[in-house]
Amino acid sequence: MRLRSTLSFLTFVIFLTALVATASDNHQPKNAEKMSSSGQLAAKVRAALTAAGVKTFASAKAATAAASCVNVPEDCEEGLSEGPAGGQAETSIAIDSTGQHIVVGFNDTRGFSLNPLSVSGYMYSDDGGQTFVDGGQLPSPGSSSIGGTLLPQVFGDPDVKYLGGCNFVYSSILVAAFDSTAVQTMGVHRSTDCGHTWTGPYEVSSATNPNKVVVQGQPTDAADKEFMDVDPETGRVILSWSNFTPTSVEISSTYSDDVLSGNPPTWSKRAIVAADPEDGQSSVPRFAGNGSRNAYMVWRRFPSFFGNTIGFARSTNRGETWSAPMDLSPQFFTMDQVLGNDRVNTSPSMAVDNSDGSHKGNIYVVYSNNNNQDGADVYFQRSTDTGMTFSSPVPLNRWPGNDRAQWFPWVTVDNQFGRVFVFYYDQGVAKSGDLTRVTFTYSDDGGVNWTRPAALTNSPFKAGWGNDTGQPNLGDYNQGVAKWGKLYAVWAGTYQVGFTDGQPSTQLTVPDVFFRKVPSSTAAVDLPVSAGVHAGPTPIHVSGNLQATALLEENFDEPGLPPGSLPPNWRAVHGAGANVVPWVTSDSFCGTHSNAAFHPNANDGLPPAPNVDSSPSRLERLLSPVFSVPANADLVTVDFDACYDTEDDPNFNILAYDGFFLRVTDLTAGHTVRSVLAEAFEKEFTTGNLQHYPKHFPRSNDPSYFPDMSAWAGDSTGFKHVHLVFPGMAGTDAQLRFEFTQDSSGTCADVRPGHNCGVTIDNVRVRSLQSQ
Fold it and tell me: Which of 36, 444, 494, 514 has the most CB atoms lying inside 10 A of its own CB?
């Protein structure tokens, strides 16, 4: 079921941009690249409020890891971006004991327009998931203020749990008042009417600057990426999170025995579960239930540049103290980037069998593992002895090592019979491109045997639809709950939109939250919008004979064009970086003897000198002339020839560092000026014989680098023809925007010695198609 973003948050984007521009880097944790996306944004705003109120190749890249942010816990957000992402993602779900009352939480970008800000959205169903009501965003009283910005602010990373009766609890990142400044902590809301209304946020005091270090009036700790669990025996609520200090990350936990009744709830003193250099992110706590006092925790660890392990700890006193951490498996290879998707991680999910079945007490853990180097496979481990030992990792997807990426797995156990469900994103449905589905499997014998993986989605969707430069698109995780042998699952999904979707907002309206219950004959459905019942997207179909009209043609071979010069009305624009290296024309790259637009991939930073940024990282744009699309146009096609040889990573199939991508700028009178990623609304997209782009950039903290974009990168081995078909452009004035970016180290020659490095495009043709 889909919840569509309907409120514009352009005002917030302008506000946040102005605040962040005045913020000092000293107010953010030095290891902030380890934070989740919501945590990063919360840290930025906290800093802004503070300012306002007062292998060989792998080794080379590791030297610049702080900027490139490959395999760090968990995300970087300091690279170039043009505002928060649109849509909804990072889904959570909880169900009451009757199965009729369902509460769904998600990151909701509509809340960026609020003051106080709240991006923790929610929906509820009173009929077992047949229909849902959009509740909007969790409330905040706005009882404090810094420079006109009301606090506390609710920053998403949702987790929802059922407390019995008609009671639910919902946790989020919180930016709260701290003397005359702000602190990044955790908060909870609670509902006593089955998720219809909520009170809070109630600050989790144990997560608020727990080390008590204050420097120049500023708290030095920042809380990020929490998950909760509820003890079925006592009702105790445990919450774990990553506590960021200036020098380390502390996997932390606290618990409350009066979440439902306390005003505010009281929380235990924080326990540090792990704080080694390889820790850590995305901790998940679980109670054993069935009369046991045991509790367990898993999290993601980072022992080496391309290596991950899964940390585990156990408690024998319901989370009061914890054992020394251990690794569940040998170090494994981190996952590759994913086309169309803004986020990758190997974060674990864990479930404990609380049923009365024959496998009660079993512990199940799933995570993405790329040892087969096909992107990632979903791996499973179990313990049958209360976490003392674990089975060896085994893959669950159908063709491990031969089916591209599977990622963001979630595991849950049926509370009656002990059926174990696992579901995950899956790009094994196509040999290339961003086509994606959600896949599930289950086991009825405690994880020994599994059903053949099957589709949870009605049909595959393109991960890049709705994507923008704000990140993330599909979030960090999805969740499901199992009851009575059925899986109740929610995830972020996409659908086809047009060029002007979401105007006058700067964002598109996808992704959205989808829900399905299986086994069931009911198909996956989109959640309704607040304006009323939503029937779903209107499919974009064009039939009959099509008449083509030329809108733009360019081969860069105009007579008399000076060497290196661009044709009239084509412009090179510097986007970022200390060294300006504009797009030019060249007749010597990629074996061509005619002019084409060209940009080098080179280590060509400014000469080292005091107070001079000598990094070669940059963003350089090539802008086409503006073209007008006829009002009766059904589609617009863009064709050109591209050749590229840029730095990619030989350890991965998709990860690359330098290259270019395409956006289309809306310059129509009366519209908000915005540049839309080609992948966000394309109806067709091929590069040679591949679907979509061939590569994807990592996240980055480099402000001169455009991170986390799918792109033309790596070695094209000659010219490839690019063909794109765009819907929804009728009556618009538009411009092609080719964006080249490169990071601070390395070129194609570091990967392929002796190669000439750069990108070139030629024979650009834009046409409109009208039905006859």
Answer: 36
